[in-house]
Fold these 4 entries.
Entry 1:
Amino acid sequence: MKWGFIVIVAFTTLISCSNSSEFETGEIKAIKMLRETLIARNTPTILLDTRKVITRKKIDDAKIPVLFVELENGQNGTLTLYPGEGVGETWLGADGATITLHNGRIKATRGMRRDLMGSTSSVPTWSEIKNTSEYSRQISYLGGDNQTYSKTFSCTMRKHNKQTSITIFDVPFDVQEYVETCMSNTDILENTYFVDPKNVVRRSKQYHGPALGYLLIERLER
């Protein structure tokens, strides 16, 4: 999908959602942030570091939710929350790729290598996890032959005893750390989540699939 088309669609959708000048300004700034990221990606560099393009000031000025995602190879970028209701939150990147999160956990992706097509789980909410919780999880992947394959995991979520502090784009956040271990007949996955007092997952390292491995995900707005 071409960038110009993405901007036109996003701009039209956002304007139709609200007549508030404050809302409009924030969303237009978000589009500009995505555009700056894409322009930087098109420059003849080996690997763009979005941290050098999107500053804390730009994040604060936008006044909307912003997501940072980094692959294991160091490639990274920012995404903004896609307007509308759905199952979980869908985040849109400048290249048209999307990530859908539910309670901060990856539920699905589109436009990425070997996409995660869907995920279901009986995991309790963050506030319900006192020490450890056990549950099952089913994850569906897009295979190399363009077919969907599902795996079922037995999982344990462990809550750390003490709170800690992490810094995201120059801003410290008080968080609670959770470690998720999931096992199938052939695989062992370990995901880490840092959750703030409002149950927002501020930082996580989550398994995407065999092609991309783990993703680092951060919520940037205060």
Entry 2:
Amino acid sequence: MNFKILNQGNCTLFLMTLLFVGALTSCQPDDTGGGAESSGPPSIESVALTAKDSTTTVGLRQNSYTIYGNNLGTTQEVYFNGTKAYFNPTLVTNNVIITSIPEDAPYFDASDELRVVTSKGEATIPFSIEQPAPKIISFAPLAASAGDIVTIKGEIFEGLESVRFGDTEAEIVSSTTTEIQVRVPEGVVQAFLFVETAGGVSQSTQSFGFKFVIYDDALADSWWIGGWAGTQDFENTERVKRGDFSIKRTYDGGYSGFQIGNGGATIDLSTMSAVKVSIYGGEGINDVKIVLNGNDGVGKVITIEEGVWNDFTIPLSELGSPAVLTEFWVQEFSGTVPAVVYIDDLGLI
């Protein structure tokens, strides 16, 4: 015979569990204890959220629930919307089952039924599973013109009700459980995306668009081009994030820099919060440093993954909190050359 030694923590947890079950079942009539022989087919009277002991007919996945009824002592299986749920048979009594809704139990177009199977029969009760809130994983492009299509990728998009750019409703072109395509509304310069379903509303972590565009197919008017130990092509077509062109920058010397500046009036940053830019990692690239106004002492070093577009939103607080913008650098910062990057959708939000 094998004996399992419980440590003090496990013993405490076990005793608390027994006390908890005793408290739940003390008010139930004809409670004959776990595994007791039932006298007939089961019946279900109510379901309660275990943590609050409050009766409910709607549940959330991965939450614990207490099922109250009669003749439950020989329970063999419990199902939520046809999905088998786990329960500890040693804690089942003739009047109580403690169980949890499975993580993969369906919530959309489901049977909305809780079913208990015992050795004497089975019982059901109407019980629906609440849809979780949607989850936005990414969207592309990060900036676009009115009427362009933006693709939102994520999870739990069933029962889609609306998509908004800030407070502005967008036209939904198509949707699946993991992808939504919408048309950019008129007048949107910069906004977070909101997806609303029957399960709630979720906001994107990144914002869409710009308050001020520095480069999107062309450099903003009055900006000058500089830099050292390298070359750049502002009408590159090899790698483009959006539109027709991107900036191809080739770094020929270690710690060389791509540099552009505003030759007109300085740009007031009092209403801006961050720099947003997309950088494609070409051959040999690793780290680059983003610098504003030549203040490289407070620049932000970021790592560029080679072979993909990398999207960055860098708070101005991480770039020295400048009051105005006069110039912008992307400096090679790993010392390995030659190296190449492609820059697109550069601006301020």
Entry 3:
Amino acid sequence: MPGSLLLIEDEPGIAESILYAMRSDGFTIAWHATGAAGMAALARSAVDLVILDVGLPDGNGFDLCRELRRTSSVPVLFLTARSGEVDRVVGLEIGGDDYVVKPFSPRELVARVRAILRRTRGGSDQTTAQCGPFQLDERRQAMRFHGQPLPLSPSQYRLLAALVRRPGWVFSRGQLLDVLGEGDDPSLERTIDSHIKDLRLRLHALDPTCDAIVTHRGAGYAMREDW
């Protein structure tokens, strides 16, 4: 289970308690106090999970996660002093995997990190997620379909990866635009329909019986969960 973690947190006291707890549990963890330093570290080397503070001295952790999701699907666990439901929902909708409110128990944080890694790794040594005939390899940014490599454009990969990670979760067009890093311009939402159509055609060409992506009229799209 243990792997490599990146902590982006500006409060030294909190950071030190997290570092101690994670290292005691066998994880390798690096710490950076600003978003810019954390992003630079991610550009240099991959990690299995990012623990990200929402309130950073050089920006907002939510904005940092949006930027990260344009190029990476690494799991993100938010740390924040905000306990409101809206903040929790926003954190999850933009691509976060969990949300922990300060103050918190370091041991609980370790348990949550382990739970995320079990889910995203799919029980293997690689960072993977499994859903029906799909296997997502997060570290290699690759998708397999019925055990075979599935050639995808960068946009197709990001959309399909988001759906595979959360079977049954209905993503609005706006949320999927955010996955693509296209912002929240409503005029672009119909491009999602085009991407989904192309994905369906590609999957049907390989397996005519596969109806993987479900349309929820007026709401958005979801990955089948009844495989």
Entry 4:
Amino acid sequence: MNTSERFSDADLGAYVDGELDADTRSRLDALLANQPEDAARLEAYRRQNKELQNLFDPVLEEPIPTAMLDLVMKPAARSNRPIWMQIAAAVVLLISGAVGGWGLHGLQRVPPISSLPSYVERAVGAHLVYAAEVLHPVEVAAKQEAHLVKWLSKRLGNPIRAPHLNSIGYQLVGGRLLEDQGSPAAQFMYEDAAGRRVTVYARSNDGKDTAFKFFENAEVSAFYWIDAPFAFALSGDLPRPELLTIAHVVYEGLAK
């Protein structure tokens, strides 16, 4: 450590950041008692650290933007982008992490799927499994829609419809019966001209009706709500505004 008449900025910075061992800190305390100018510099460093914490600590509570996570972490997204773009995205994420620890903390703050209602967990899980299926994405195809709806209505114990999404470019692929904690659940799958798929999940629920709620992570987004006698979840790998538009059409289609 510098023990000359004036201390270096590095010495005082290490003191403020708690990087000095106990003996060195005690020696510096003794020397600063007789050097008011350096003591004033030390206090200024303390104030600066406090101001920086007040400015950047709130960022620790913010999740990393989904678009940024997708650039770095999503295999399909990485493989379709030039290598320079992948490197740039990684650098941005690394720099972000250096500011207040945003990177790693943001990853931890992404709402865990386990915090969702159980039926939403199962809806999202079923979407990820079946929306990626090429040969057998559904159990009953759209050409048997009448049979599908009648069968699922009987199993769920209440009449249910397969909402028509043709007006927004999505065609019914078909549907299937699923299990949800020992009870039956239904899944309807839709696909647009670009091959993007969304699924509507329904299970019996006599709870109080709720407005749309939203969930997203790097793989899937979902709007979910209760409209007794069913709980519903609409899942898809789509931007929130687009998925919300579909959710409104689904809601209206189910209410007819």
